[in-house]
């Protein structure tokens, strides 16, 4: 079995590093929007616990990137620019895509919902005006918890499941996909 220990193997990230990474990501997004004036796909991972980056998380991010680009190619949506970041705060990828932002959002939500590993991906769409599109404005339900059927944000806020439980579920999903 794969095991959650591989997911927690590595350097723990501090809150300061996470906040710094978020600011840098927002800066890269603003720069890309200014340069390309196209909707952006911004990909991060669902990484509970203090370790956000290691070989396993990097492989999961690479798989997500491949699936997003495959979906774009299937719709004949060109990728005008892309950038990967490999930081202690976790792997990140973003791309400027030649497609209507709303259509792109619908397609990415369906990818997250239908791919066996999609629930482990956090694919955000930012329109060319810099507005992040939400699932709810398209009638999609909130993301589900990894462990139970509740809305993920409710379980996270109430801390209903331990980090170990979440990591075990992530490890199971990765193992099942092999």
From TrEMBL:
<dbReference type="GO" id="GO:0051191">
    <property type="term" value="P:prosthetic group biosynthetic process"/>
</dbReference>
<dbReference type="InterPro" id="IPR005551">
    <property type="entry name" value="CitX"/>
</dbReference>
<dbReference type="GO" id="GO:0016829">
    <property type="term" value="F:lyase activity"/>
</dbReference>
<protein>
    <recommendedName>
        <fullName>Apo-citrate lyase phosphoribosyl-dephospho-CoA transferase</fullName>
        <ecNumber>2.7.7.61</ecNumber>
    </recommendedName>
</protein>
<keyword id="KW-0456">Lyase</keyword>
<dbReference type="GO" id="GO:0050519">
    <property type="term" value="F:holo-citrate lyase synthase activity"/>
</dbReference>
<dbReference type="Pfam" id="PF03802">
    <property type="entry name" value="CitX"/>
</dbReference>
<keyword id="KW-0548">Nucleotidyltransferase</keyword>
<keyword id="KW-0808">Transferase</keyword>
């Amino acid at each position: 079995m794969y095991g959650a220990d591989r997911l927690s193997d590595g350097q723990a990230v501090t809150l300061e590093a996470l906040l710094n990474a978020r600011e840098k990501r927002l800066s890269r997004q603003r720069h890309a929007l200014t340069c390309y004036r196209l909707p952006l796909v911004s990909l991060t991972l669902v990484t509970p616990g203090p370790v956000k980056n290691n070989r396993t998380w990097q492989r999961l991010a690479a798989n997500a990137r491949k699936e997003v680009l495959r979906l774009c190619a299937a719709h004949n949506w060109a990728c005008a620019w892309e950038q990967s970041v490999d930081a202690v705060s976790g792997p990140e990828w973003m791309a400027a895509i030649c497609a209507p932002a709303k259509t792109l959002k619908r397609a990415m939500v369906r990818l997250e919902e239908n791919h066996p590993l999609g629930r482990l991906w956090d694919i955000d769409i930012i329109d060319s005006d810099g507005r992040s599109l939400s699932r709810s404005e398209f009638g999609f339900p909130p993301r589900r918890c990894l462990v139970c059927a509740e809305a993920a944000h409710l379980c996270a806020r109430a801390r209903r499941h331990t980090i170990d439980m979440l990591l075990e579920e992530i490890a199971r999903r990765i193992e099942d996909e092999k």
